[in-house]
Amino acid sequence: MLTLKFVLHNLARHPLRNALTVLGIAISIMAFGLLRTTVEAWYAGVSASAANRLVTRNAISLVFPLPIAYAGKIRAVEGVTHLSWGNWFGAYYVDEKNFFANFTVDMRSYLDLYPEFVIADDQKAALLRDRKGMAVGAKLARRFGWKLGDTVPLKGTIYPGDWNVVVRAIYAGRYPNTDETQAFFHWEYLNERMKVERPARADHVGFYMIGVDRAENAARVAGDIDARFRNSLAETLTETEQAFQLGFISMSEAIIMAIRLVSGIVIVIIMAVAANTMAMSARERMGEFATLKALGFGGGYVALLVTGEALALSLLGGAAGCALSVPVTRVIAHVLGDYFPVFLLSGETLALQGAASAVVGLVAGALPALRARRVRIADVLGR
């Protein structure tokens, strides 16, 4: 109790300097958390992937299609419980800046395979009935002000032309990390037009989505699927949904590494600031430390006081930084929702922020505490 009183008393001796130090630590810890959250947002698709889902694509590249005739052979592989297919459509709404993730899929099987997209029963029935029906995420619907029954004119890029689809369903995410900024409509609608306009591209899909009975069977099922199409005109590459998502993220690995590096540098900088504050405080109180030793307090106790003060300053700043991170993350998620469909402050990030603030305090107080422990009574009081 006496130690705590000493620590609190010393914190109050230089309120402006300590307040500024706490503020600096708070901002740095908040910045560290936001950078960590940015990295997690980049990996949101990976974390949302299911262990019992596979993706089959052309072995050469995703841009090369696969015949729809492969569906029957894939469905016959032991361990396959669900099968769907689709294409990356790549259209935009009215203007090129209004771009969003959009796919054509085999609707009924796709919804069975992805239960995390929650759609009301009446909307689902209307979506399945209408060949031009489209399902959109709740965030995407809010972004463009779409309502059920609205006809949406899409401008095709990969498949040029005007594509008029009707909003028949607005889905919500079952989990916090479910992407609600996507749209998908019927693959049959695309295929019918391809048969008329571009027959060579008809009856082809960009990828197959496969559900397996157990996650531990995923590797075997993937191998069996690829073996069936080995030496064919369109060989396949089957991988887990997580690996498929990681393939896209690897293209921006340099950016992610830079963000991680900056987050580490932020902690090092604030560690130096906190260490400077504690060094100044310790130099000013060397006489007090010598007096405490003269009164019978050991060097270890004096070092504990200095370390406790540094740790208290850092933890106060860390707590403030964590508290600030919550509303700031929500604001960023609202403003940058088009670029980061999922931007959530996770419990792991909060724990890392707390751990970082504790490390800053311990490291910043280490050298001043060592000096205070070694101070000699005669040298200080003699001066």
UniProtKB/TrEMBL annotation:
Subcellular localization(s) per the UniProt record: Cell membrane
Superkingdom: Bacteria
Transmembrane segments annotated in the record for this chain: 254-275, 295-316, 350-370
Domain ABC3 transporter permease C-terminal: 261-374
Name of this chain's protein: ABC transporter permease
Keyword line: Cell membrane, Membrane, Transmembrane, Transmembrane helix
Keyword Transmembrane helix in record: yes
Cell membrane as UniProt keyword: yes
Chief subcellular location: membrane
Domain MacB-like periplasmic core: 19-227
Organism, scientific name: Nitratidesulfovibrio liaohensis
Mode of membrane association: Multi-pass membrane protein
